[in-house]
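Quick bug: Folylpoly-gamma-glutamate synthetase output formatted oddly.
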Amino acid sequence: MRNTVKRYICTVENYETAINTLCSLQSNSNYLQLATKTNSHANASYKLVNTRKYLFRSGITLEKLDTLSVIHVAGTKGKGSVCAYTESILREHGFKTGFFSSPHLVTVRERIRINGQPISESQFTEHFWKLYKKLDDTKDDEFDMPHYFKFLTILMFNIFLDENVDVAIVEVGIGGLYDSTNIVRKPACIGITSLRLEHTALLGDTLEDIAYQKSGIFKPETIAFSVPQLPQAMRVLEKRAVETKCKLHVIPSFDEYKWENLSCASELRNKIKQQNASLAIQMSTEWIRSRASKCSTVSPVTVSKDKIMVHIQLKVWNVVFPGLLMQVVEVKGTKFLFLIRRAFEIQLNYFYP
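Here's what came back:
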């Protein structure tokens, strides 16, 4: 699939021109339209081959990428929140975190965070031009540059390795099996959030198809955690776990946790948020456990349930990402609730007077 979008010609290597150059690498909306028209297993598989090629051209081998400790999360609903909870828990326990998410609302820098904060304009500018030059200088032809999301994925891996983060929490963009983030070969652990129909033109028009795509991030000898799923989705996850030799666990109910501070836990009543919190807890504690078992020289870290609960509570009651807005508007006696989540989800509910 060739990119026919005209490239932005850079004359000054500053932040503004970096953003303009990035945007010239084709928007995700254009990419989705093209991908839908040419969707096939062969074409989808080639996307990962391409991503690995660009990673290598950026100066990172797959062996080097293996040294990055990644928590990889896919799903239809809640994966951004789960990643945010997980990042907050691990940061509070003293670890340096990297967090990759999409989309963004105000600035693309929101997608790449270090210790919970978007990278600065100067950091973005420096890393962007360093990567862009490497890829531009080694391209085979004028079209041989990664698309927007693929470029950001390669940029993220470069930044997290350069920053020497302890853990990288990586949210899948679309699907999982052929997503650009799925060049990670040895994730520390994997999370699957609630699955529903989505992007059917790309991922398939049944829940089984969706589950198959999401389970594409399963890797051998890795532990995966899933929230409870509808039976048809869970059957696929279980089958794929066996095929890939990945250990799949369904997370416990939030009510099964024994909290040190019950007052904190009692305030988290929403079942969906409880489910997302449980998934984050399982992945965080597994990451800490596996890190301790692999690094005998590292001082053991005690997992604090109070720290976990307090930070999940903060993430639940405060804005996790810019763009979560609730606005009630009354029109002729009828109240309308507008929910705007992230940059692309707009939901309208109404209440009878």
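Actually, after a second look the formatting is fine. The longest strand covers residues 334-341. Closing.
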